[in-house]
Amino acid sequence: QNSRSLNQMKRSGKRGKRDKKRQEEEEDSNKIVLTKEMILEGLSEPQVLMDRKSVGYARLSLVGKALEHLNNNLLEYKFIQHLDLSDNGLSEIPQIAQFDFLQSLVVANNKLKHLSYLG
Predict the structure, then answer these.
(1) pLDDT value at position 115?
(2) What's the whole-model pTM score?
(3) Does the pLDDT value for residue 47 go beyond 60?
């Protein structure tokens, strides 16, 4: 009987791990990913850049997009001066440290605990 209960415990443990993995996969599939389309929709105030040939954008608004993290798509727009990330679920935004021209950053209503990567 002890070997039977031991086998049942092993099966139960494996089932629990499978259920947990399935739940994590479902949570990942429900996360909103920052797409280039989202970025393009939020860009405004085009400006001629210093090389006088290229155009950049001064503002990017990603308000209320249900974002939980930012990906590297954002890094293509390093000339942004004003960035609004309000009303998302962001817990960190380390990419922001790479925006040398950033003058204003709005991050109200997120899950941020610190912005130490800003220096």
Answers:
(1) 79
(2) 0.72
(3) yes
